[in-house]
Specification:
With 337 residues, the protein is mainly α. It contains 11 helices and 4 strands.
């Protein structure tokens, strides 16, 4: 209980304030589209992820031989403390419950009725996909009566869904640019990353401080995917036309596990302006390195003897049994008293 309280009531708020400062710096120092980078994703999840990884690693470290906690809350009649096992079981059960709840809450919607492969609109989309090396690997389906003209659905196995009317009314250049936009979402695993951020924010007691940054990051991701589509060969004018056509195409509000081409309001105007300005894509390397290094440090700290901080060192641990030295018999004895 002390370890969990320390993790979620001390470390999580401290990291949240630090991440909030880092996100504010990213907003001031970069462009609107650059806020959709992997660095923003790392800053959104590290306030919860790092203390959680530290807590799990510390708990596993306490299960090692000779690492039991001396101050045990339960009288079980033995030298081995079971508080650590109970903490690990609580972490596993709580984590599984949270992930299961979010998987149910943000489950992918049912894909509308698919058109047969011999349909002219399906063949049109297939020809465009086969002509581009990035699009050839996408899972694409053409459907009827979609809530939005073009979107990507699925956490682990994303599928690009194209409405039949949008495919019929759009020319080759518009469809190619729009599909490249969705390819950027698939390559960035955006639906999965949105799910991870929502799960981390659900565990954060100060989630309201980071929620506006999460919403801003999602909008900026659309602009970043526009830029990625142009860098992979999409025509910026054709993509702008596709975005406008999608915005007028009875765009409904999609659920959380899907990402789509549609835009609304001021964000739509900014995306079109950035397409005309040809803003370069943000480099994702820095954010990935930040996330990897932070996670590695959180896992390694509990196993460094000088930095063992489980329960903040308030409890004395049972000393590990030591074998007598091999030269114990030959060592000189002190004078008899």
């Amino acid at each position: 209980a002390a370890a969990m309280a320390t993790a979620f009531l001390v470390f999580v708020p401290l990291f949240t304030f630090a991440s909030r400062a880092g996100l504010s710096h990213l907003q001031r120092s970069g462009s609107w589209a650059s806020f959709g980078s992997a660095a923003t994703f790392a800053l959104l999840i590290t306030p919860t992820l790092l203390p959680l990884l530290w807590l799990i690693s510390s708990t596993l470290h306490q299960l090692e031989p000779g690492q039991g906690v001396a101050s045990c809350l339960l009288d079980h009649g033995g030298r081995r403390c079971v508080d650590t096992q109970l903490l690990l079981a609580a972490l596993v059960a709580g984590g599984a419950g949270l992930v299961g709840f979010h998987l149910w809450r943000y489950r992918s919607p049912a894909i509308p009725r698919r058109l047969p492969e011999n349909d002219a609109r399906v063949r049109k989309v297939r020809r465009i996909a086969r002509s581009h090396r990035h699009l050839a690997r996408l899972r694409i389906v053409v459907v009827c009566e979609s809530p939005t003209p073009l979107y990507t659905s699925g956490l682990l196995s994303p599928t690009v869904v194209v409405d039949a009317c949008f495919a019929r009314l759009s020319d080759r250049q518009v469809l190619r640019a729009a599909l490249l936009h969705e390819h950027a979402h698939v390559a960035g695993r955006d639906a999965l990353r949105y799910f991870i951020v929502r799960s981390c924010l659900a565990l954060n007691p100060l989630r309201r401080l980071l929620q506006p940054d999460f919403d801003r990051w999602r909008v900026a991701r659309e602009a970043a995917c526009d830029s990625d589509a142009v860098s992979r060969g999409g025509d910026p004018l054709a993509l702008a036309l596709g975005i406008l056509r999608a915005a007028r195409f009875r765009c409904g509000r999609l659920g959380p596990p899907v990402v789509g081409l549609c835009g609304h309001g001021r964000a739509l105007k900014l995306r079109l302006a950035l397409l005309m300005d040809e803003t370069p894509t943000a480099n994702p390397t820095r954010g990935r390195l930040l996330l990897f290094a932070s996670a590695l440090a959180a896992l390694a700290v509990p196993h460094v003897p000088e930095l063992e901080v489980l329960f903040l060192g308030w409890h004395e641990r049972w000393p590990a049994p030591r074998a007598p030295p091999s030269d114990a018999r030959s060592a000189p004895r002190g004078p008899a008293t």
